[in-house]
Each structure stands twice: as C-alpha cells, then as structure tokens.
Amino acid sequence: MHDLSRRSFIVGGSAAAAALLAACTAERTADYYGDVSGGEGALIGVSMPTKNLERWSRDGENLKRLLEELGYSVELQFADNKVEQQNSQIQTMLNKSPAVIVVGAIDGSALGPVLQSAASLGIKVIAYDRLIRDTKAVDYYVTFDNYNVGAMQGQYIVDALDLENASSPFNFEPFAGSPDDNNARFFFEGAWDVLSPYIESGKLVCPSGKLPSSVDDWQSIGIQAWSNTTAQAEMENRLNSFYSTAKRVDVILSPNDAIALGIGQALASAGYNDDNWPVLTGQDADQANVSNIVKGRQAMTVFKDTRLLGERCATMVDQIARGQEVEVNDTESYDNGQLVVPSYLLDPVTVDADNVREVLVDSGYYTAARWGCNGY
After folding, report:
1. How far are the Cα atoms of 42, 61, 157 from residue 357, in angstroms, in the given order?
2. What confidence tens digit (pLDDT) does each residue in 4-37 have?
3. pLDDT of residue 369
4. Residue 300: what are its φ and ψ, rounded to 5°?
5. Which among 8, 12, 14, 11 has a CA at the least distance from the CA of 329?
6. How many CA atoms does the CB half-sphere of 25 hold within 13 Å?
7. Within a 10 A sphere around the Cβ of 159, how many other Cβ atoms?
8. Burial class of residue 142, CB neighbours in 10 A (0-12, 13-18, 19+)
9. Predicted TM-score (pTM) above 0.70
10. Where are the transmembrane segments (predicted)?
C-alpha cells in the first residue's frame, strides 16, 4: 500500500501558476510581486498550531529565520491549539497579500473556507507536516514519511522483544495520536502493519482490551491534541484497572514524545523502575524525552530533523515565489479527500541510547549539556 522507497517526481505548472498569480489583481502584481529576484520585499505567512509543544515552537522560529535569510518578510503566528484562532490569524495574513502561506494545521479539516479565500486571491498554500484535508485550496505538502515513522516504531518493538523468536507473550498497550490530525493515522498504520502479525499470533496481548479492531478504528485510542496529561490519565486508568504488582506491562506503543511523557509519568507513579521499565516508543526527539532515553526511561524516539523540513519548505516557498518548478517526490500517497496533494517527504531516523550522541549531538541539533548528560 505504501512504497517506502519513494519515487521522484517534478511537478510542473508552477510557471503557469505564477502567471495566474500575476493576473489576479493587477495593482497587487505591480506593487507587490513585481521582480521578486532574491525574494526581496515579498511577504510570507507562517501559521503554526501552538507554541506550547517544543517542536512547533522550534519549527516556526527556524522557518522564519530561513525565509528571512532568503530575503523574505515573514509573519509568524502561533494559534494556541485553537482552530478559530488559526482561522482568524490566516485571514489577517490574507489581508496583507502574502506571496505564500505555510500552514501547520491544528485540525486538518477546519481550514477549507479561509484557504479558499487564499486560492481566490491566487495565494499558494503549503501544508507543513500536517495534511490539510477536504479542500482543493492546498497546493503542496512538505512532511516526513509518516507511514515509515510508525513502521520504525513497530520494528523497534519487534527487535527489542525479539518477537520472531519469543515463546512467551508480552503485555502490550497501544496509543494513537490526536484524532483530528491526519498524520496520526499514518503513524498508527505503519506500526500496525508491522505489529499485527504478532498480535494475531498471540505474542502481543492487550490486557486492557484497548486494541483497535483494525487500522480504521485507530481513533478509538487517539489522544486528543497529543496531550501528555490526557495520556497520563489514560495510562493510569489502564494500570489501575488491568495490571498489578504481579502483572506488568511490557511494551507501549506511543506515537510521539508528548504522549510518551505522560505515559512515563503514569508508569513512575505506579512504581515502575529501571528493573521493569517497559519498552516505550516516541517521536520528535524532544529534550525531556532524549534525557529519558539516556536514563533508560524511554526506549527510542523517531527523529524528524525539522531543520531539514524547514530548509525544504523554504526552498518550496522560494520556488513558488520565483515562478519555478516546485520539486516534490511523492504524487500518490496524500489524498486529502478532494485531491492528491503533491508532496515532498523526508526520511526520519530511529534514535535510541546507542546512537543518540551521534544523531542528535554530533549533528549540532542538541548539546549534551542541554539534556543533562555531559558525560554520556
């Protein structure tokens, strides 16, 4: 269903799109687009979902910096995880006639009307890391290979527990991401495809019964807004209701690091320690979670180098503004319900205690001091 060896495509037509932009409103063209050689003077709108999650705050500021280095003016807004606020912020951006709007959506299906306004003005829209659904008013999508993120989490579990050779079953608890985030299904589907054979064979059992009947039922275990407090409460409920001192959970599929933090807090409160800490997955390489990996309180995270994501997004913005062909490498995977959105997918990386320094510190993404392990 998903070919993880992605094929490369170049989507044409950007020059024609630029011509349409120029014709949309003559006065805007003369005063605003003119000659955007070097990007000088053009405004780019950037709408991010929240500043409260580390990765979104980091992504927004990084993209703003990259675009400014290319010579663009940037209006960056964070929407505090409120859909109405994001709609209002985008509308305010449209009133300023930006060349392009980059949107990290809170609810992938809630932006259709305001983005249709962008389309009617000839303003191009790039969906950033979260697919915008149920509208034709989205031109490009830049993200990581989200199916592969889940597949990497699932494969890590298989390898960590040696499920191929294991004879005894392991107690397994699955979690999924926010039901309103299109990426969450891809994460869960990737993990499900890897793990379902071991569920069917009885090597992974779920004492809580919180096991979706199929991939299509993934939202039944979704954690709204990726909330660590909601995840903590859910894990506490499962531990109190289905586990005991004699019956321990062995492995937990967490789709991202925020949810993993909440799960970890529930585990610690229930008395889990270094001797019986379960295999716990994650995603995003957030600072606290990297520290937990080093301490043995989280097995792995999937690192999506958002520096590369920002660089690719900035390149796409620049190509649009200059009327050039926009490079993408996937034209099949992301059907938003109205069209298949041309996409550029980047490759994620599995990080655990064995390669955390090499991937995160030696690359300059973090300093060892930042996560409190100078000697690691």
Report:
1. 39, 24, 21
2. 333 333 333 333 333 333 333 323 333 333 333 3
3. 67
4. -160, 165
5. 8
6. 14
7. 13
8. buried
9. yes
10. none
